[in-house]
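Before relying on records like the one below, remember that each one covers exactly one chain. Contacts with other chains, cofactors or solvent are not represented anywhere in the record.
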Amino acid sequence: MKFIYLLAAVAALSFSSCKTGNKAKTEIALGDTIQTASGLQYYYLKKGEGRKVETGSKMGTYLSLKVEDNVVWNTNELPDSLFTFVTDYSRLIKGFTEMSLLLREGDEVVCILPDSLAYGAKGAGDIIPPHATLVYDQFKVIQVDAPKAFLSDLLFTDLKDKSLEDAVNTFNRIVKGSDSLKYHTDNEQMNRVWEQLTADSLHQKAYVYADQFGELTNDNRLKYRSILSMESMGEFLKAKDKLELLLVADPDNERMQEKMIDLCKKHSESK
């Protein structure tokens, strides 16, 4: 995500909010800069009249991101064009999520994110330097779907408080039943459950879950994550043996090759 310091300054000066004294005013004039309590700044280029974005809404957007006056990301140049994500769920920076939840279908805004709402002191690889302000000089909301609940929340609760069998039953009930239209049920949901269990240091449950649901959903990412759980529990030899099976199906996977070397080393050192 990129930024133009000059643009940020110009935006702040040229499009400063008009204070009319009418506290009941609800309409935003195009061009007026709005600043939220977090420091996010944005102004409208166009006001839409479509569905309001809510937590759980799937959005489709056209984006252009600038950092230090350089365009570093433009979704119009991507093969499938629209950048889609689930609001307040997908792994996106804080400021982007905050901006999304303020919009509706048809809106077009320019938004400026201070580094505290973006990548902070670490930056992001070679593209986003430390403490960079990000400027989305194009943020067009093309599509907003009705919000759905998250299947991952149900599965995590089952696994943490009940059993794997309960989680499997919930999965089958939701995915194969009429409630499937009310929930996000993609593979990202399945992987989020593993992440939640791992974050709570429930490595045994995370392993059993990833092992079974990896097979149930034919998700190789989950199958690989079951190996990471075994590693977290110090089961290096078993993890190595399981990884060998995955490498048979995907022998050119560099990440798994590197993990195999790492597991062999850890197993040797643990003897």
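The beta strands are 34-35, 41-46, 58-67, 70-74, 83-86, 108-113, 134-144, 149-150, 183-184.
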